[in-house]
Design brief:
The protein is an all-alpha fold. The protein has 7 helices and no strands. Helix 2 packs across helix 4 and helix 3 runs antiparallel to helix 4. It starts with 7 loop residues before the first helix and ends with a helix.
Amino acid sequence: MQIDPNSRNMQGITSFLTFVALNVLYLLCCLPVVTIGVATSALYEVTIRYSDDERGRPLKDYLLALRANAGRATLVYLALVVPAAMLLFSGVFWFSSSSPVGAGAGLLAFLAAAYLLTAFLYGMALVAQFEAGTWRTVRNALLLPAAEPVRTLGIVLVPVTLGAVAIVFPVFVVVLVTVAFSVGAYASAFLFRSVFTRHMG
């Protein structure tokens, strides 16, 4: 019995194993926390390219993207995630006051934090796709969620759904560790490409 490496089944298995390896590599690169930004931008760069039929060498391309995007991705990450974390902390503080004003302020803080975290996803995809200054990237990342609310909802639903399913069904953590982030990024890649074609072309 001969196995044809070019058969559709073998190509499918190869692609699946590539996404598993990419997922594990991504999680390892996120462990220092401060590297979450560059790890995410590299993942988006590979999956956006993959979604455009530029197969390349995903694992090697990921490592190259880590190196190329390190400085800019880290600065954009800090510019968007640090204030988001401060807003989340502020929201918890206001909600603990147990007053209507505190509840209102807490809700606004949480909404602002959610917007910044959404902008972070755009920021990492922008770093992956375009050569631009840090502050221009941050500005565009802040503008795009409001400019594309429907596609943005789709982009946000990917990580939110993964997190929610993992909380409700703890066994799903196995899927998160093996393939969920890389496949989720691949699904988001089509939405990012559509947004960038409309606004960044």
